[in-house]
Amino acid sequence: VRSEPLRRHLEAESASIRTRGFAGFFGVAMNWRSAEGDSARCPVLLKPAVTLGSACVGQNGMTGSALLHMQSAPAASFSFVETLGMLYGLRLLGETVVAGSVSTMPEGQAPSAAGLICTDGAMTSTARLSLAASILKNMGFGTSFARIVLLCGHEGHSSNNPHHAGLECGACGGHSGAINARVAAALLNDPGVRLGLVVGGWSVPSDTHFLPGVHDTSTDEVRLLDLDQVPTDHRSDLAQLETWLASASVKTRAERSTALGLGERPTGILKRLLQRRAADWSEVRPEWALARNAAFIAARRSRTRGVNLEGRSFLHEYDATADADDSILTLILTAPMVVASWINLQYFASTVDNDTFGCGDKALHNRVGALGVVLGNGGDLRTGLPLQSVHSADGRWFHEPLRLQVIVEAPTEQIDRVLGAQPGVRDLVNNGWVRLFALSQDDCHLERCVPGREWERVYVDQS
Fold this sequence. Notes:
Strands 9-8-12-13-14-15 form a 6-stranded mixed β-sheet, with helices on one face. Strands 2-1-3-4 form a 4-stranded mixed β-sheet. Strands 5-6-7 form a 3-stranded mixed β-sheet. Mean pLDDT is 88; it is low at 58-62. It is built from 13 helices and 15 strands. 36% of the residues are buried. The longest helix has 23 residues, at 235-257. It starts with a helix and ends in a 5-residue tail after the last strand. The chain is α/β, with parallel strands linked by helices and 463 residues long.
């Protein structure tokens, strides 16, 4: 939902731009090994298939990991505060007087894609080729490739925020999507993999370069990664892409500013204000994250291009004509759609009853290790979202609690086949946790799946 405004403004820059929506882990289900330890960079529904790490992680990384563990361990945390607390106090004073800056170093500190290494031997040549082919298939590329294909993950930034994972990529397990984008791009650029793709029937042009990037949803800046890997004859294409992205970012920031209470500000000032909010340790609302999410649309981008969806819809590329065996639709409905429903229900519950399902005022939170937060100096561990994630500063509820509307551009019989084979997804629909609609591939004919009955026609005012 945070990518929708940026995609819309980017496409408005030129008719030659095409965007596709896909889960932010880019199909690379991996375990990432860094100085902070291991972390799964994939949806919680999946298990990491490979362990990757940075060649830069060494003894210093082990030391950093030990310090992080001391901060959250039940007993060691007290001695940690007593021994190093004064130093953190000086840092806190400095950050109060002088606004900090948002870190822009790609996660893992690897200088380029060459700095990413496989630590468990699972990335064999066969596995690499299979993964690359599945990425292209599930993204719906077909035979359409540009000279530069930007694989843009996303991440958020905030300071002093125990709920910062909610600003990150949910498909990456609540982490930045930068690493997944870099791995996917490096895989698709590998000469051996590209040769295997051609043999396997994929017509990827030899001059197509996959470029990783990451969208900072707190400041709406897009950072391009591994630029040292871009071929020299693609420099003019890269310069044009950077110009388009910069312009789209300016328009996206202007669109978001009103909801954040910033109003209309000059371009440069607005950018600095958002950067300051992201670095301010006292800011309770660095961004609205996934608030007001209402729909999940699995369809060709041509069906929604040019439509202002106001940042309220998850958009996933899907072409039913290229899915003869229902495998792509099965993947979409069992993974990204399910995750989207979890997100939707989390916001729903935290809005309708924040006292029970949310975690109250963020300004009163005290963190309890890595377990959760309490309000003030005691009480029960609180779950769900902070009040500031769903409630605006003017006293109104910002999030509108609606069950997720799932719209799939596919024949009803195809959707029925998938539901019949996936009882978990069928239960979500039959029990009313999500509302499922089928969009005709030829027109705006819409049908709703009514639990216990046949599909029924929905009449939409198209005036």
